[in-house]
Amino acid sequence: MRIRVIGAGLAGCEAVNMLTGFSLPVDLYEMKSVRKSPAHHSDLFAELVCSNSLRAASVENAVGLLKEEMRRLGSIVMEAADRTSVPAGGALSVDRNEFSSYITSKIKNDPLVTVIDKEVTSLDDDGYDITIVATGPLTDGSLYDEIMKLTGESDLHFFDAAAPIVSKDSIDMSKAFFASRYGKGGDDYINCPMDREEYLRFYEALINAERAEVKGFDKEIVFEGCMPIETMASRGEDTMRFGPLKPVGLIDPRTGKEPYACLQLRQDDSAKTMFNLVGFQTRLKFGEQKRVFGMIPGLENAEFLRMGVMHRNTYLNSPALLNNGYSLRSNDRLFFAGQMTGVEGYVESAASGLLAGYCAAMKALGMDDPYIPDAKTVIGSMSAYVSDPSVKRFVPMNANFGLVERIEGKFKGKNGKKEKNAAIAARSLEIIDRFSGIINNIKNSGEAAQYETR
User: Fold this and answer.
1) Which of 59, 115, 283, 410 could form a Cys-Cys staple with 310, CB 3.0–4.6 A?
2) Residue 450: which residues within 8 A CB-CB, separation 6 or more?
3) Rg over CA atoms, the chain
4) DSSP structure string for 185-239
5) Rounded alpha-carbon distances, angstroms, from residue 182 to 179, 191, 209, 213, 406
6) Cβ(278)–Cβ(266) under 8 Å?
């Protein structure tokens, strides 16, 4: 049985890790040593091209619960994240270089993995029995054309962006201060407060700043969770103050008061030398980024270690094409994983790779109808959404409790939402623990395990 995974991003590495867990050898194709996409900078696997945050940590939040589900299923991404985390209040953030280095080392040192440094341009089987395509949302060229031809789809895409990173030593701490919103998680963020006049000057400069040209962006197909800051600003004078510049829960120690607006910067590496501008995804020209963002108090002389960039993301019309195990309906030996399936976010992308890897392993072991967690779990709700043929207007989506099957019970009052989410988490993790038991039984016996999940 020959298996290949195309792409060593988060989803591809997660799929490889799951496959080798079943003692299945895998050929992993990665093109970055040959050619990098516009968004990639490193030769490492599982590169985090945008933020270094994996978002909320609490299981009472959908993405936090998804992370815990993945931990219990043996996720390599969560293993790496927990080992390389940096302070980030109520979120899980990582040192992006240490994170990617950990995953790269573990994958390359797995004797069941053969890494092939080559760009794949065709989906001809080339003697492989099973293929997982995890080439990411920047898939282009001949492979993009073949996928579109294979699926019969037209051009599906949206635009994504990354925020700048600055040197900590270049931030003027006589104007900025360390704190977390409401003191949650310790003083994990650098905060740059603005009064009304400073904010309005920044706002006017931002909305009039020169943008970099991005082919096709005139259609303004933007994923709301990664909206460029200048696009957000164009929606109204106060839009940013209700978004990334929200001052609520932050007190400027110089005045003892809440500022009019406040930029937060999040630690980007374990050495605390690099900080990224939270929520400041942008497509401004590089010179304009330095000029306009340098108007924010504390960043006047900031050294930009990485400029913000924008790139186009491609995704499939998955509800018309995929099964809930991420295989193609017309070819159940060809799987897709990652953001190109329409899941959105680092953790969601990795989770799709984990489930695709599991289903591909079951196919390799001759189990054609494997157990897949249902929509009572976050990982199951995502696969259900991207494979639901009743979804006629498909758009990429983050993990959220709106996708998860409703739970019975009355949850009212001040703590009602929190109690409901806690109940959803408890129900989900019980199912995930049973699923983990199924996986371990198969690994130990090599045979299908019959397991009823109610």
Assistant:
1) 283
2) none
3) 22
4) TSS-EEEEEE-HHHHHHHHHHHHTSPBPP-TTGGG--B-GGG--HHHHHTT-TTT
5) 8, 13, 33, 39, 31
6) yes
* Side chain identity at residue 226, one-letter code: C
**Which CATH class name applies to 161-312?**
mainly beta
4 bridge partner residues: 27, 131
Give pLDDT tens digits for 418-435: 899 999 999 999 999 999
Give the predicted TM-score (pTM) of the model.
0.75
Q: What is the DSSP string of 269-301?
A: STTS-EEEETT----B-HHHHHHHHTTSTT-TT
Mean pLDDT, rounded, for 344-349: 92
pLDDT digits (tens, 9 = 90+) for 91-129: 899 999 999 999 999 999 999 999 999 999 888 888 999
The first and second tokens of residue 195, run together, are 């009064």
The rounded mean pLDDT for the chain is 89
Q: Of residues 405 and 71, which shows the higher confidence score?
A: 71
- Nearest C-alpha neighbor of 4 from the set 149, 146, 145, 135: 135
Handedness of CA 122, 125, 127, 132 (dihedral sign): positive
* Tokens of residue 233, six digits: 């600003």
What the block records as the tokens of 350 is 């990795």
Domain boundaries, the chain: 3-156+315-445, 161-312
Comparing CA positions, the residue from 359, 371, 363, 383 lying closest to residue 452 is 371
C-alpha distances in angstroms, 336 versus 119, 161, 273, 322, 347? Answer: 17, 23, 37, 8, 16
3-state secondary structure of 335: strand
Contact 97, 306 (CB under 8 A): no
% of residues, the chain, pLDDT over 70: 92
Predicted confidence (pLDDT) at residue 318 exceeds the cutoff of 70: yes
> Do you know the residue count of the chain?
454
Sheet holding 85-86, edge to edge: 53-56, 91-94, 85-86
How many angstroms separate the Cα of 147 from the Cα of each of 109, 123, 304, 314, 343?
A: 31, 8, 37, 11, 18
Name the phi and psi angles at 322, rounded to 5. Answer: -110, 150
Q: Could you name the CATH architecture of 3-156+315-445?
A: 3-Layer(bba) Sandwich (3.50)
Q: How many helices (H) and strands (E) does the chain have?
A: 11, 17
Res. 323: pLDDT tops 90: yes
